[in-house]
């Protein structure tokens, strides 16, 4: 068994570039549209739900993360790392994913009531049971979605994902309107994963060989355990702030942090997360050529940083005008947290592409070791920050003119600690991913910090412009003008300036523009 000759043959260099650009365009386009809907939905939800609803929903989701020791969706990573043996292992992957998912679901569902009793938050148990279904939904999605990605069917993926996610967003709004509370945050994303799994299985039904080859079970289990433990630690890192804050403070302060964090990631997830999803199967096609892999990764990351860094800093500047315009006063405590976590996005943008590279290289042990180290240091740092840093964080925010809520000091201290951890570990992750091609420390750091040369002055000018408008106009008029006119202009100037810094980035940007210009002319 194995892949057909056509699907197993690695694309040419030009073919990979075209596929990456085309795939990123389709996935990014659907994500942009859905993020616009999501931002609008978040504004509505902020009026329909209380901070405590957000805190309870995300606490349940992150408790579930601790029980999903071997997340079933990493089976997609295992399949992409073994692209040439996809058909041979797909049956074993499918069977193991469902068994593991069922075991984890039953274990967590059985502990839901005791956890609620120990935690003391009424309604937590039912949310935990709902969150526990995530591993089953991921098991349903794993094989068919990996086949879609390996076949580089980005257009169809974008259409299906866009439609399903839009439906889930509307479902969440309807649930919140009819009084479902925290469940309106927990249930729709899991329903979307299950729906995608059913649709992709139907699309790929004739191409999936789900008969279990017994000799493939042991190697699949071994890679699943390595990849799963690495992803488990990654998931703990991503949710560690919520769990630590949830046990060291109250539900309302947790909700203020979660709301800020959820909004801070929206812009970069449009580009970085989608690019990671596009790059991983492409890297898998050139698994045997690490130098070619890493050259492609570095160039893609440099182009990405030219976009992500200015967007992140401009987003931080918009914390006050955007929150004042869009959200009720109850969310004031989220403003400074949002600003800090937006700056953190200037480092976190690289997470998805660098992890995609490590996984496509099959370096699951390196990924596991990196995640373990970050999880350990993060846990220590977060506890100390929450315990000792609340008052100092509030004082710092006030000193730079950010409005604060005294009840959110611990959340703000945590956001500062989180940003510091990511600023250290994101460059380390890129450097480790690039070691097979001897990627240097200077080149690694330059990827992150070169765009700051342009982005910091542009962000500073945006602050000056906003304050100038507030001196000349009413606060509301100045905030509207800043969000609608000044910020988009600053984003364009920042991105163009960052792109112009490097010759290779200029060439890559020009190539993308020319490719899509030709495509549009051809379509016309």
Give a written overview of the molecule:
With 524 residues, the protein is an all-alpha fold. Helix content is 83%, strand content 0%. It has 23 helices and no strands. α3 packs antiparallel against α10 (214-248). It is globular. The protein starts with a helix and ends with a helix. Mean pLDDT is 83; it is low at 1-18.
Classify the secondary structure makeup into a structural class. Answer: mainly alpha
Rg over CA atoms, rounded to whole Å, is 23 Å
Number of helices: 23
Beginning-to-end CA distance, first to last residue: 43 Å
Topology pattern, helix = H, strand = E: HHHHHHHHHHHHHHHHHHHHHHH
Broad shape: globular
Number of strands: 0
Which percent range describes the beta-strand content?
under 5%
Helix content: over 70%
Mean pLDDT: 83
Low-pLDDT ranges: 1-18
Described by strand count, sense and barrel closure, the largest sheet is:
none
SSE topology sketch:
Elements: H1 5-8, H2 13-48, H3 51-67, H4 75-81, H5 86-119, H6 124-132, H7 134-150, H8 154-177, H9 183-203, H10 214-248, H11 251-264, H12 266-285, H13 290-317, H14 319-326, H15 333-348, H16 351-360, H17 364-388, H18 390-399, H19 409-433, H20 441-449, H21 452-472, H22 475-499, H23 503-523
Helix pairs in contact: 2-8, 2-12, 3-6, 3-10, 3-11, 4-5, 4-7, 5-6, 5-7, 5-10, 7-9, 8-9, 10-17, 11-15, 11-19, 12-13, 12-16, 13-15, 13-21, 13-22, 13-23, 14-22, 15-19, 16-19, 17-19, 18-19, 19-20, 21-22
């Amino acid at each position: 068994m194995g892949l057909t000759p056509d699907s197993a043959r690695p694309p040419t260099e030009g073919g990979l570039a075209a596929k990456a650009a085309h795939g990123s365009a389709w996935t990014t386009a659907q994500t942009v549209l859905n993020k616009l809907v999501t931002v609008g939905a978040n504004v509505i939800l902020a009026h329909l739900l209380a901070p405590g609803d957000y805190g309870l929903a995300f606490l349940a989701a992150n408790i579930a993360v601790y029980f999903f020791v071997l997340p079933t969706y990493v089976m997609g990573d295992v399949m992409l790392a073994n692209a040439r043996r996809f058909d041979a292992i797909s049956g074993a992957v499918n069977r193991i994913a469902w068994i593991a998912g069922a075991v984890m679901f039953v274990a967590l569902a059985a502990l839901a009531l005791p956890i609620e009793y120990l935690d003391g938050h009424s309604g937590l148990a039912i949310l935990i049971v709902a969150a526990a279904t995530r591993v089953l939904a991921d098991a349903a999605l794993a094989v068919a979605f990996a086949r879609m990605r390996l076949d580089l069917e980005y257009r169809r993926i974008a259409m299906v994902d866009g439609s399903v996610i839009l439906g889930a967003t509307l479902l969440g709004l309807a649930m919140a309107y009819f009084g479902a509370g925290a469940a309106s945050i927990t249930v729709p994303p899991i329903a979307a994963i299950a729906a995608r799994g059913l649709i992709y299985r139907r699309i790929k039904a004739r191409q999936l060989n789900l008969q279990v080859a017994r000799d493939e079970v042991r190697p699949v289990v071994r890679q699943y355990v390595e990849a799963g433990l690495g992803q488990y630690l990654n998931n703990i890192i991503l949710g560690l702030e919520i769990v630590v804050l949830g046990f060291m403070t109250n539900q309302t302060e947790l909700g203020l942090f979660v709301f800020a964090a959820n909004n801070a990631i929206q812009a970069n997830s449009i580009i970085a997360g989608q690019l990671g999803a596009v790059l991983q199967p492409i890297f898998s096609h050139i698994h045997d050529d690490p130098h070619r892999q890493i050259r492609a990764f570095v160039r893609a990351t440099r182009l990405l940083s030219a976009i992500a860094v200015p967007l992140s800093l401009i987003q931080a500047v918009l914390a006050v005008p955007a929150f004042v315009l869009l959200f009720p006063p109850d969310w004031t405590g989220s403003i400074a947290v949002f600003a800090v976590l937006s700056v953190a996005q200037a480092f976190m943008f690289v997470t998805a592409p660098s992890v995609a590279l490590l996984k496509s290289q099959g370096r699951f042990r390196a990924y596991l070791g990196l995640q373990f180290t970050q999880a350990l240091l993060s846990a220590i740092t977060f506890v100390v920050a929450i315990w000792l840093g609340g008052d100092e964080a509030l004082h710092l925010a006030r000193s730079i003119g950010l409005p604060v809520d005294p009840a959110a000091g611990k959340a703000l201290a945590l956001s500062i600690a989180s940003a510091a951890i990511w600023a250290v570990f994101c460059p380390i992750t890129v450097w480790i991913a690039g070691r097979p091609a001897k990627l240097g420390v200077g080149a690694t750091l330059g990827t992150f910090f070169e765009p700051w040369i342009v982005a910091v002055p542009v962000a500073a000018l945006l602050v000056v412009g906003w304050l100038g408008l507030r001196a000349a106009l009413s606060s509301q008029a100045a905030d509207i003008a800043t969000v609608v006119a000044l910020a988009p202009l600053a984003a364009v100037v920042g991105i163009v300036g960052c792109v112009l810094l490097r010759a290779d980035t200029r060439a890559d940007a020009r190539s993308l523009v020319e490719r899509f210009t030709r495509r549009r002319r051809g379509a016309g």
